[in-house]
């Protein structure tokens, strides 16, 4: 049976901070509040909460926000009060997990291929025995001595 609660979250803690950090900090505060009060690390904040926080821009978040939270199987879903919470079905969760596992498996295979390719390339280079490049020595011309400019003697006209 899912656990449901309605909260009024005060956001006054974000106002003493810098103006350009207020709404970002408010969204972090909402997440921390839900983690603390619903006792779960996995929190999904709904689109309606995000839109309400950002409605007036980064400098002016609301002073408080009323939300409706549901906890199902150690996952907390939250939306604004009055907005329907859409929780994914078990089938959808299984599909997401399968997709995630396939993606991780694919990444591991790609990494193995990269390692194999680099090892194979190194072996091929050793077998071929690449000729060493001979550094080109530029033809050196004898350096001309640079003499400091001579001082001109000024002749006085008498």
Describe the secondary structure blueprint for this structure:
Blueprint: E1 3-10, H1 22-38, E2 42-45, H2 47-54, E3 64-72, E4 75-80, H3 90-128
Parallel strand pairs: 2-4
Antiparallel strand pairs: 1-3, 3-4
Description of the molecule:
This protein has 158 residues and is α+β, with helices and mostly antiparallel strands. The chain has two domains: 84 residues, Ribosomal protein L31 (Ribosomal Protein L31e, Chain: W, Roll), CATH 3.10.440; 40 residues. The protein has three helices and four strands. The protein has a four-stranded mixed sheet with strand order 1-3-4-2. Strand 3 and strand 4 form a beta hairpin. The longest helix is centred in the last third of the chain and has 39 residues. The protein starts with a strand and ends in a 30-residue tail after the last helix.
Could you provide a short overview of the structure?
This protein is α+β, with helices and mostly antiparallel strands. The N and C termini lie far apart (119 Å). It has three helices and four strands, in the order E-H-E-H-E-E-H.
């Amino acid at each position: 049976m899912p656990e449901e609660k309605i909260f009024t979250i005060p956001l006054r803690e974000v106002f003493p901070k810098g103006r350009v950090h207020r709404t970002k900090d408010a969204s972090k505060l909402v997440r921390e509040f839900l983690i603390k009060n619903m006792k779960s690390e996995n929190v999904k904040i709904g689109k309606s909460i995000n839109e309400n926080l950002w409605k007036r821009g980064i400098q002016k978040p609301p002073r408080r926000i009323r939300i409706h939270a549901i906890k199902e199987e150690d996952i907390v879903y939250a939306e604004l009060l009055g907005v329907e919470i859409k929780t994914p079905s078990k089938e959808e969760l299984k599909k997401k997990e399968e997709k995630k596992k396939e993606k991780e498996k694919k990444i591991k295979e790609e990494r193995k291929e990269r390692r194999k390719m680099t090892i194979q390339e190194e072996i091929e280079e050793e077998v071929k025995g690449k000729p060493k490049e001979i550094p080109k020595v530029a033809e050196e011309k004898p350096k001309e001595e640079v003499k400091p400019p001579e001082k001109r003697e000024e002749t006085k006209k008498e």
